[in-house]
Amino acid sequence: MVFLTLSSAVLLAYLSLSSKPLPTVALDDGIGKLPFMGYNTWNAYHCDIDEDVILQTAQLMKSLGLADLGYQHMNIDDCWAEKNRSVSGDLVANATRFPSGFNNLTNQIHDLGMKAGIYSDSGWFTCQLYPGSYLNEARQLFRDAEQFQTWGFDLLKYDNCAVPFDEIIDLGMVGKYTRMADAIANLSATTSQPPLLYSLCQWGREQPWLWAKRLGQTWRTTDDIDADWEHLASIINQNSFITWASDFYGHNDMDIVGNGNLTFDEAKSHFTAWSLMKSPLLIGTDLTAVTNETLEVLMNPEIIGINQDPVVGTSVSPFRWGVNPDWTFNATHPAQYWSGESQNGTIVMLASLNVLDESADMFFNLTESPWINAGRQYSVRDLWTHTDNGTAIRNFTAKAVPAHGVIALLLQDAGPEPAGTQPPCARPEWCIDQNGTLVQ
Ligand SMILES: *[C@@H]1O[C@H](CO)[C@@H](O)[C@H](O)[C@H]1NC(C)=O
Ligand SMILES: *[C@@H]1O[C@H](CO)[C@@H](O)[C@H](O)[C@H]1NC(C)=O
Ligand SMILES: *[C@@H]1O[C@H](CO)[C@@H](O)[C@H](O)[C@H]1NC(C)=O
Ligand SMILES: *[C@@H]1O[C@H](CO)[C@@H](O)[C@H](O)[C@H]1NC(C)=O
Ligand SMILES: *[C@@H]1O[C@H](CO)[C@@H](O)[C@H](O)[C@H]1NC(C)=O
Ligand SMILES: *[C@@H]1O[C@H](CO)[C@@H](O)[C@H](O)[C@H]1NC(C)=O
Ligand SMILES: *[C@@H]1O[C@H](CO)[C@@H](O)[C@H](O)[C@H]1NC(C)=O
Ligand SMILES: *[C@@H]1O[C@H](CO)[C@@H](O)[C@H](O)[C@H]1NC(C)=O
Ligand SMILES: *[C@@H]1O[C@H](CO)[C@@H](O)[C@H](O)[C@H]1NC(C)=O
Ligand SMILES: *[C@@H]1O[C@H](CO)[C@@H](O)[C@H](O)[C@H]1NC(C)=O
Ligand SMILES: *[C@@H]1O[C@H](CO)[C@@H](O)[C@H](O)[C@H]1NC(C)=O
Ligand SMILES: *[C@@H]1O[C@H](CO)[C@@H](O)[C@H](O)[C@H]1NC(C)=O
């Protein structure tokens, strides 16, 4: 009897939990359908920011042609505030850094045809110990969400430092980030202005890919990027297991592009993986000293086109790991063979990340990708050389892929494969004639 009572209690508890399922679809409040693109001040400037740096960067985004390619957000990171709120409890911008005020700055950014982003934190303080927004998120407390919107910002990056003690906060990660999500939604409902784009930055803690799409548009999946090959490989490896979480209105955020100490091939790998995995594309390098090579990488229109695909929101995913067995979690040797859908009909993409330390040929059978039809041939376009590379029948080999290099291809249905192509089945196992004979 005791046992039965206990299990009924467990069952009841389970039923009462499951009777209130949370919505599982992405929040569609009209913004952030595609991964956002822009600039973030942290990686190049850390705390050394002011209105001149931000305006100069925004103007360079425009004059270099980045803004017109879609890099529209000019996002201010940590250290913009005074250390104390005003006597009435409002956040105050550092008047030495921002003598013209934020409304002036966001007006000028908007005049360039761009959008402005601001930064805060879900705890008592930001990571550099400026005031956080905890207990100050909401309109009823006349504070931060409204302040950011009144200042003219379009986006809020929301960090995860200086978390209040457990008995104060009484919330998990989801609850802590829900406070600002509610404030943003309530503010938008009250003002009829578009909501702030909510960019959650909890460094991948508590599996945000499972819940953050209910609250905002992007969520960081990993720690701050250190853009050398070792860290890139590790970020790609981690994200290779959660590619399913990105789609319209909700995106895995892999952090900054266009920064770090990378070779040209590594920079192309970085940008290709981030773009095709539908991460936001936030530039983090000093644009006054940007190299032509970096710009060439960041401004590849065919790669950006995939990231900003208006019809297909999903990410590429691995179909074969390559050097390691499938599903191997390995920080130095992530999956090498990936594919995904894109806008242009029966198009297939493949980005082969060569994780070896010397150049190598990379071979795949077309039907290893779920998006390829058997019995068809495919035209091949190379998205880095911008060339049409003939027609692939059954398989394709990329020759001498450089160490840490990438190949990005667009495969497009080019009709039935030639009659009599052998063997009769692309996948020979269970290749059975109608009369029951196994054909080898
Ligand atoms: C405000 O900006 C000035 C100039 O950059 C800087 O010296 C000062 O430390 C900043 N104040 C705070 C509280 O960060
Ligand atoms: C700023 O706030 C801290 C507490 O967070 C307080 O100790 C300090 O006196 C305040 N400074 C000023 C100038 O109000
Ligand atoms: C912004 O401030 C600058 C310098 O104070 C001033 O010249 C300019 O007119 C202001 N612009 C706007 C849009 O308010
Ligand atoms: C947002 O609005 C809902 C419904 O009106 C309310 O229950 C909630 O407390 C509000 N949240 C905040 C943070 O203002
Ligand atoms: C960049 O990497 C190269 C090769 O690993 C190394 O020699 C160089 O010192 C690095 N430069 C910086 C600024 O880290
Ligand atoms: C970079 O490209 C610009 C425009 O194409 C050219 O004028 C400039 O000389 C190039 N700089 C270098 C260092 O190659
Ligand atoms: C599909 O092709 C068109 C025409 O070339 C191009 O404008 C568009 O960007 C492509 N879509 C994607 C997602 O690459
Ligand atoms: C990662 O994979 C490589 C290649 O198979 C292997 O040499 C290395 O030992 C693996 N690393 C770990 C930590 O298992
Ligand atoms: C490619 O297809 C051939 C012929 O069906 C098969 O023998 C081979 O194992 C396949 N290779 C891969 C990597 O799937
Ligand atoms: C690739 O496919 C062709 C058929 O088009 C076949 O002749 C060739 O053996 C295949 N290569 C491999 C390595 O499976
Ligand atoms: C596609 O063709 C171009 C031009 O010949 C060549 O440079 C490139 O390596 C080819 N791409 C692949 C993946 O073979
Ligand atoms: C059955 O199919 C196989 C393979 O297509 C063929 O070689 C064989 O002649 C067929 N047998 C009969 C009885 O039709």
Automatic annotation (TrEMBL):
<dbReference type="InterPro" id="IPR013785">
    <property type="entry name" value="Aldolase_TIM"/>
</dbReference>
<dbReference type="Pfam" id="PF17801">
    <property type="entry name" value="Melibiase_C"/>
</dbReference>
<dbReference type="Pfam" id="PF16499">
    <property type="entry name" value="Melibiase_2"/>
</dbReference>
<keyword id="KW-0325">Glycoprotein</keyword>
<dbReference type="InterPro" id="IPR017853">
    <property type="entry name" value="GH"/>
</dbReference>
<dbReference type="InterPro" id="IPR002241">
    <property type="entry name" value="Glyco_hydro_27"/>
</dbReference>
<protein>
    <recommendedName>
        <fullName>Alpha-galactosidase</fullName>
        <ecNumber>3.2.1.22</ecNumber>
    </recommendedName>
</protein>
<dbReference type="GO" id="GO:0004557">
    <property type="term" value="F:alpha-galactosidase activity"/>
</dbReference>
<dbReference type="InterPro" id="IPR013780">
    <property type="entry name" value="Glyco_hydro_b"/>
</dbReference>
<keyword id="KW-0732">Signal</keyword>
<dbReference type="GO" id="GO:0005975">
    <property type="term" value="P:carbohydrate metabolic process"/>
</dbReference>
<dbReference type="GO" id="GO:0005576">
    <property type="term" value="C:extracellular region"/>
</dbReference>
<keyword id="KW-1015">Disulfide bond</keyword>
<dbReference type="InterPro" id="IPR000111">
    <property type="entry name" value="Glyco_hydro_27/36_CS"/>
</dbReference>
<feature type="signal peptide">
    <location>
        <begin position="1"/>
        <end position="26"/>
    </location>
</feature>
<dbReference type="InterPro" id="IPR041233">
    <property type="entry name" value="Melibiase_C"/>
</dbReference>
<feature type="domain" description="Alpha galactosidase C-terminal">
    <location>
        <begin position="333"/>
        <end position="411"/>
    </location>
</feature>
<comment type="similarity">
    <text>Belongs to the glycosyl hydrolase 27 family.</text>
</comment>
<keyword id="KW-0378">Hydrolase</keyword>
<keyword id="KW-0964">Secreted</keyword>
<keyword id="KW-0326">Glycosidase</keyword>
